[in-house]
Each structure stands twice: as C-alpha cells, then as structure tokens.
Structure prediction request, 383 residues.
Amino acid sequence: MLPTPTTSHVPYSLVYEPAEDSFLLLDTLSSPSQTPFLSSLFPPATTPPPLILEIGPGSGVVLAFLTAHALPIFSRSDILTLGIDINSFACSSTTTTSLLAASSHPTTSGHFLGCLQGDLTGCLRSKQVDVLVFNPPYVPTEELPTLPATLREGGKEKGGKVTFEDESKLLELSYAGGKDGMETTDRVIDSLGEVLSDRGVAYLLLCAGNKPEEVKQRIRGMGNAGEGRQWKAETVGTSGRQAGWEKLQIVRIWRE
Amino acid sequence: MKVLTLNFLTCAVKSCKSSSDSFPLHPKDAELASDDVEVNPQLLINLLPRLDWKALKTTSTELGFPQLPDSPPTIEDLQSDEKLLKDLHSLLMETNLMEGKLVCGVCGHEYAVREGIPNFLLPSHLV
Prediction:
C-alpha cells in the first residue's frame, strides 16, 4: 500500500474532503491490474513523459498521490502532473498537497506543474493529455449549480471572508451533477477525443445512479476514435455493494 | 504554475482556438519564482519531442530568459552544450509564474495569475 498524501491543511468548509470515491481512485490507479497497463502505454526511456491531468482535484489527494508515487505507478518518475478546478481554494489546496507529497517522496516523485482555475479543459491545447482522471460531481440533482460571481475572481479579496452562502455553493458544486448526475461528466466524455493524446487514457468515477452500463455503451459508440480504432470503456475498480449493484466504480476509457 | 505549463495552454475562448495566434499565451507584468530542482538531462531529452519549440522560444524571450536556438536541439546538442541544458532546465523545471497576466494574441483577453494560480474562468460575455 502506497501512503496516502496528507491533506490536514485543506479547509474542508470550502473544499471537498477526501472520501470513499477519492480512496477508490487511489486504490484502482495503484492496483496490480492498472500499473502494468500504464507502464505499457508509456514505456520509460523511449517515449516522452506523460502529462497527467486531474479535473476537479479538490483537496488534491489523488493528484498528489499520482505525483508522489510516479515510479511505482507508471514505472517512471519523469511524469508531469496538472490540475484544473473551478474552485480557487481547491487550486491552492491541490498545490500544497502535491508539493508536500512530492517532497516527502523525492526518489519516486514526478513533476507537479500546477493547478489552474478553469471550467473543465477549455484552456488546454488539443491532444496533450495522456492520463485524465475525473472524480466528477456525480450525484443526481434537480439542478446543476453555477459558480457565484463572487467566487469567479478568487473569492478571497473581499476581506478574506467567504460567506456562508458561497461556502454551501462550493460544496454543492463538488457533488451536484444535475440530470442522472451526468451533466458535467457528459461534457467531459464529449471532449475526450479532443483532449486525450493518441496514446491517452481516462479514468472516470461513476455511481450507480449514473447508469454506468449505458454510459459505457455510449462511449464505445463514439465515432471519433480515429481511423481503424475504437473507443473502449471497461470497469476497472468497484466499491460498496448496494442491493446487488456496485455503488461506485471506476471506468477506464481508451482507444484501441 | 511552472512555466513549462504554458506549452500546453491556449485561450479558453472557443473562437480563438482555430487561430494559431492563441498559442502561446503571452505573459504580462510577470513575477517569477525559482525552485531549486536537480538537473535531469534525461528528463529534458525525453521532454523535447513533445514540446512546441517555437512557442517555447517565444515564452523564453518574453520572460527575459536567454535566447533559445531557432530549431530544437538534438540529443547530441543537449549532451554537449551544458549552457543550453542549464538554460532549458532553469526555464522549464525551476521557474514558476506567480503573479501577472496571460494575454491571448487573438482576442486580447487577459487571464489573471495570482499566487501561482492562473484563472481561466471567462466572463459571461466570452463563454
């Protein structure tokens, strides 16, 4: 078991606290079923360093884990890691968590580039991402929340105090997924062909309410995998059974 | 944010993406900070094939770093030219953009950078 990064500095009133979903990602990405797959996608020494992107890293626990344990997970330590979060407090938390974890594991650690504030992958050049990790807002809700204007510009400037309403909004943004809990995830799935490099792979967390079998079918049917290739989508990690169904699962998405 | 990140970023405005002038973004009023990172020649050699060299050269010049050659160095160049290796290492692996702005060459939108975090959220009229 690789050690979990410390997140004791993270303000949990403003940033999603690591929970069962975060830990399922850690377990899955470092599992004996995934690490040989990742090393085979990015053979060390003969291929350029992979760029790892986490969308919505929150506390940064997953991105810091991948950064600090690059060598055991990817069989190489020359990886680059990047986060993009809509919540500026999550960006600061992810930066601190990742730099702390990297400095605690200097012999196995990759290179943390930074965490940007942004709306999904809108600011990225096309086909740069080799590993995309996304623990989305997956809970089905009536409405999809939007970021309050006060928090668009960092939110810290008005006396350094975040209002109770804004605090609630930030946490709502971290879990509320709109219809079927899929409104944000669907945007990411639709962008995969543009965001992932040709050798790229995505790890996406889904809950039972997201209708994961239908989601996987939809991905396999996407027509933009490139000539002679098809999208693959397979469940590679699960946790918590509920009425015979897996409560949470990690779906791996790639082209073959 | 490490300066290397700029090689992966473009303007978040959809209509700018088709224009080559939306990449790289141009730093303005930049405040930089430097980390002490051990030089790893193999990392730089592996990294070069995935970088857009022309954009990197622009970024390097705009941030006041030494002029980079017009074409990307070969592995042999890097192994024999210690100064070039050190310059690249310092620019890519050690330098962080802490404060300032990133400006799109097409629409002119300025993305603010504060405490090392650039903000790519667009005002509603640009979404």
